[in-house]
């Protein structure tokens, strides 16, 4: 301990000064945060508005659909994670396993527990229990796949089976409630997921187009990518807000959420295309040449040999793109007056009960917490995947 | 052996790979044209229906709004407002880029420090800021810091009696005299300092002594600035509270402060990661060689590692600069009068939306192109010339 301190904190006089300065900054910040969270913070504004912050004015009688979607998603993720072939570097001991789980999911568990405490009623506690149950059920299902004849199912079919249930439920939920009733965190999540899903195929096509040997396709893709990358997202959103109805017939005049999804999709596709192009460039020429030697068509070489490897190589960058999209969904709130989490967060401080009491700290802290946990967990997972795939090592 | 192999049959043109390739491309082009034609047709139709301008004539209309902190008149044309917005965007971009680079580099180095406390502080900063939306930081800076934590003007903070900090903005000491004079003075001083530094480097190359070019250069610069200042009698004005406002000095808008602060905080966390990665990417042998010739820790960083790290970091840094410039459009959400805000207001005042926003997008595209040209120029200057 003493040696460690001498080595890491008090190596020389300048080092000691640095330690004292940065230590006191760190201590001050930690003290302030603790004081804010446990003593001075007035959290009843969050407690009262918790539902609006999370799902907006989503109809009460349809809330069970949202709940089921969350449960189904937890089930699928758990079963997918445990149903795949066992990784080689599994920590040997139970304690090691628990520590690994804590590192990966501790933050999410803590945040969920915090939300349950904030909600403070029996329904929330029960729902938490259901989530835990569905995760266990998913694990059992996954383990069952490993040890029964289900083992012979091909991987894609397994993924498809698992993805069907939550997707069906999510689309059902979307179909049931009008989009104007959505709000809060649900909007941010929905915008991010839908936009990334739609922009992915477009991004792949643009990346292939930009690397194509056909000049016209190359020019078109390059022009699109560079034009979009030179424009600020916020201005594009504003433009979509006031000018989209000029360009498409009035009969299909879209609502704000549709506009946001369109802009996010077109915008993210350009950035994703650059990421995927980087992946394609990292694949050695020999791969495509080997495909040619086997007499495969260009189409098959691309989709069976180069593209899968390219996508694998840039998984962390793709997740990074997804994280920045997730954070950028807040822009839709201001540009298109969508009631997203940040907008709700500033709006609740203007309610009659809370006006002029300086509660902006509390509400922004809560909004920030949700975004931070989401982005941080995703970036940690991407680092883990990167390590697991051994990109650059193999 | 089949005879077809030796005598190639003529391929019908619809299965000829060359025809197919061109057919595919022309098809794609046609699809794009068709889409644009459709969009343009709809646009023409809708515009004709509501008789909206489609050209840039709206730039000559009176602006009908004023820009705080600026003597723009209500009757001046929209064009002038756009120019002023463009200048405000550039102001934010320049100051933001400079500050974010400095802060980001320091934090990037801190994250690799041997000192545990410094390292932790850097990591906490980067992980905290990087995972928050920029708009959240901006809203926080505007609503929570500037409008709430900053005091009213009656009991403004007066740190060192040099600044006046209140929720009406921050006033800093400033020169008396025209900006042109100031610019010429600083520019000529910088030029002379650069020449002196070059001479030092050339001497050092001959004699083998340490050049200390940066130190000497900065000292020369400061000396010359002070000299010019004393010779030509420029003043130096401190701001003070004067009733409901401040007098003297340079007053920074609260929204300007909030925008620059949040952009710098956000971008510096990204730059810190780039700098850290680039320092790690400098090959280990370089640091070991520096140790072998007994350079001190700071010399090793300053003379060996950082110059090579910046060569690696340059393209990624350029991307961050572009992001910062594009993100400055968020100033519109807190009523900082930059380009986007001007466009939004003129559209609200009745200017046609499509031309106004297209113009805005074009200007951003232009700024981005110029910035990437500059970054590419430096990148080519710095890049390692191989074989």
Description:
- The complex is a heterodimer of chains A (394) and B (387).
- With 394 residues, chain A is mainly α.
- Chain A folds into three domains: 1-40; 44-58 and 182-394, MetI-like (MetI-like fold, Orthogonal Bundle), CATH 1.10.3720.10; 59-176, no CATH class.
- Chain A has 16 helices and no strands.
- Chain A has helices spanning 2-8, 13-40, 44-55, 63-83, 94-119, 122-147, 155-176, 185-210, 215-229, 233-247, 256-281, 285-293, 298-313, 315-336, 341-348, 360-389.
- In chain A, helix 11 (256-281) crosses helix 13 (298-313) and helix 15 runs antiparallel to helix 16.
- Chain A is globular, with a radius of gyration of 24 Å.
- The mean pLDDT of chain A is 83.
- With 387 residues, chain B is mainly alpha-helical.
- Among the domains of chain B are: 79-173 and 247-352, MetI-like fold (Orthogonal Bundle), CATH 1.10.3720; 177-234.
- Chain B has a three-stranded antiparallel sheet with strand order 1-2-7. Chain B has a two-stranded antiparallel sheet with strand order 3-4.
- In chain B, helix 2 (78-111) packs antiparallel against helix 3 (116-130), helix 4 (134-149) packs across helix 7 and helix 10 (339-348) packs antiparallel against helix 11 (353-382).
- The mean pLDDT of chain B is 83.
- Classes of the chains: A mainly alpha (394), B mainly alpha (387).
- At the A-B interface, helix 2, helix 9, helix 10, helix 14 and helix 16 of A face helix 1, helix 3, helix 4, helix 10 and helix 11 of B.
């Amino acid at each position: 301990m003493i040696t460690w301190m001498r080595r890491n904190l008090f190596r020389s006089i300048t080092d000691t000064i640095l330690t004292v300065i940065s230590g006191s900054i760190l201590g001050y910040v930690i003290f302030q945060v603790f004081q804010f969270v446990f003593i001075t913070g007035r959290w009843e504004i969050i407690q009262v508005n918790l539902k609006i912050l999370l799902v907006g004015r989503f109809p009460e009688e349809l809330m069970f659909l949202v709940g089921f979607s969350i449960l189904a998603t937890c089930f699928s993720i758990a079963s997918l994670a445990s149903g795949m072939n066992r990784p080689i570097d599994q920590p040997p001991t139970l304690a090691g396993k628990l520590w690994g789980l804590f590192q990966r999911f501790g933050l999410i568990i803590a945040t969920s527990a915090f939300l349950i405490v904030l909600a403070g009623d029996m329904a929330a506690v029960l729902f938490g229990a259901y989530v835990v149950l569905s995760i266990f059920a998913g694990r059992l299902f996954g383990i069952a796949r490993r040890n029964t004849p289900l083992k012979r199912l091909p991987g894609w079919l397994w993924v498809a089976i698992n993805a069907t249930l939550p997707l069906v439920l999510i689309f059902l939920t979307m179909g049931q409630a009008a989009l104007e009733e959505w709000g809060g965190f649900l909007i941010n999540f929905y915008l991010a997921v839908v936009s990334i899903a739609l922009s992915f195929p477009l991004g792949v096509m643009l990346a292939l187009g930009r690397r194509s040997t056909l000049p016209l396709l190359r020019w078109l893709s390059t022009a699109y990518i560079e034009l979009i990358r030179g424009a600020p997202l916020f201005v594009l959103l504003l433009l979509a807000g006031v000018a989209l109805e000029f360009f498409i017939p009035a009969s299909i005049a879209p609502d704000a959420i549709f506009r946001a999804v369109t802009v996010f999709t077109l915008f993210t596709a350009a950035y994703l295309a650059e990421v995927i192009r980087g992946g394609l460039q990292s694949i050695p020429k020999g791969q495509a040449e080997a495909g040619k030697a086997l007499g495969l068509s260009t189409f098959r070489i691309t989709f069976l040999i180069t593209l899968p490897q390219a996508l694998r190589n840039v998984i962390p960058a793709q997740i990074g793109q997804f994280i920045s999209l997730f954070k950028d969904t807040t822009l839709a709130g201001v540009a298109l007056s969508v009631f997203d989490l940040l907008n709700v967060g500033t709006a609740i401080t203007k309610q009659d009960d809370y006006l002029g009491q300086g509660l902006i700290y509390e509400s922004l802290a809560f909004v920030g917490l949700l975004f931070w946990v989401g982005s941080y967990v995703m970036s940690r997972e991407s680092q883990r995947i990167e390590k697991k795939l051994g990109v650059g090592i193999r | 052996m089949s005879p077809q192999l030796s005598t190639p049959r003529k391929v019908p043109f619809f299965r000829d790979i060359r025809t197919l390739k061109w057919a595919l491309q022309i098809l794609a082009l046609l699809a794009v044209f068709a889409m644009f034609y459709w969009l343009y047709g709809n646009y023409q139709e809708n515009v004709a229906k509501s008789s909206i301008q489609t050209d840039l004539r709206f730039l000559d209309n009176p602006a009908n709004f004023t820009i705080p902190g600026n003597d723009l008149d209500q009757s001046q044309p929209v064009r002038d407002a756009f120019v002023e917005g463009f200048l405000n965007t550039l102001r934010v971009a320049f100051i933001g880029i400079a500050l974010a680079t400095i802060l980001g580099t320091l934090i990037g180095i801190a994250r690799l420090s041997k000192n545990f406390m410094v390292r932790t502080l850097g990591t906490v900063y980067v992980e905290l800021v990087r995972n928050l939306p920029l708009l959240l930081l901006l809203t926080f800076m505007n609503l929570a810091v500037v409008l709430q934590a900053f005091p009213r003007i009656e009991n403004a903070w007066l740190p060192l009696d040099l600044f006046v900090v209140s929720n009406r903005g921050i006033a800093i000491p400033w020169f008396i005299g025209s900006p042109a004079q100031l610019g010429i003075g600083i520019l000529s001083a910088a030029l002379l300092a650069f020449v002196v530094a070059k001479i030092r480097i050339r001497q050092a190359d001959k004699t083998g002594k340490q050049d200390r070019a940066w130190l000497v250069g900065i000292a020369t610069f400061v000396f010359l600035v002070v000299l010019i200042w004393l010779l030509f009698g420029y003043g130096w004005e401190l701001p003070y509270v004067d009733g409901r406002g401040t007098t003297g000095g340079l007053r920074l808008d609260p929204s300007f402060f909030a925008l620059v602060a949040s952009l710098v905080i956000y971008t510096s966390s990204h730059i810190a990661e780039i700098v850290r990665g680039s320092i790690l990417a400098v090959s280990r042998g370089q640091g070991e060689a520096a140790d072998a010739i007994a350079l001190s820790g700071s010399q090793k960083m300053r003379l060996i590692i950082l110059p090579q790290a910046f060569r690696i970091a340059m393209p990624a840094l350029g991307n961050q600069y572009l992001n910062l410039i594009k993100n400055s459009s968020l100033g519109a959400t807190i009523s900082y009068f930059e380009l986007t805000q001007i466009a939004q207001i003129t559209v609200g005042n009745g200017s046609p939306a499509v031309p106004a926003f297209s113009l805005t997008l074009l200007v951003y595209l232009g700024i981005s192109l110029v910035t990437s040209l500059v970054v590419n120029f430096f990148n080519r200057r710095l890049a390692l010339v191989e074989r």
